[in-house]
Specification:
168 residues, mainly beta, SH3 type barrels, 2 domains, six-stranded antiparallel beta barrel
Length: 168
């Protein structure tokens, strides 16, 4: 299951949910017919509850979503702060030079001098840009996922090439 976001709060009285999306293109969710909910992001696929996506729109700096079967304020409050996800095969294909965060986890990070800086352990959304959390043993590096730093992502080789010094 690919985790796409998290429910933040109910929105209005008709069952809409305020959602914090973990990626930078939640509008792509419109291409999906279903979303899955779970209180545990690590739960096996069969533990996620599937809901038909009946509405999605931008609101302020976030999005609100409407799911079938969640039709009033009480139902949206009962959802709590569930994670929103989808199986990989249900997701729209990313555009060229776009990646799902799940595709980047576990990739080796090498600098332009071929020095291994570590492996991608997770990503952080900072608002300005995403940040790769790269671990090498006890050392942790936070690298901004921007074109100036990330030079190439090779999913087949399971590597990310970066312009980053090994002593930074």
């Amino acid at each position: 299951m690919i985790v796409l976001g998290r429910v933040v709060a109910p929105f209005g009285v008709h069952g809409w949910l305020r959602v914090h999306a973990f990626g930078d293109d939640p509008d792509a969710w419109r291409k999906m017919r279903k979303l899955w909910l779970s209180v545990d992001a690590e739960a096996p696929t069969e533990c996620w509850a599937v809901h038909e996506l009946t509405g999605l729109r931008r609101h302020g700096d976030g999005i609100v979503a409407k799911l079938a079967g969640i039709d009033d304020r009480n139902a949206s409050e009962a959802v709590g702060s569930c994670y929103i996800g989808a199986p990989r095969e249900e997701l729209p294909a990313p555009a060229a030079d776009e990646y799902y965060w799940a595709d980047l986890i576990g990739l080796d990070v090498l600098n332009e001098q071929d020095q291994l800086l570590g492996r991608v352990e997770s990503l952080i959304e900072t608002g300005a840009n995403q940040v790769l959390v790269v671990k090498d043993g006890e050392r942790e590096r936070l690298l901004p996922f921007i074109a100036h730093v990330v030079k190439a992502v090779d999913l087949s080789a399971r590597q990310i090439r970066v312009d980053w010094g090994s002593d930074w």
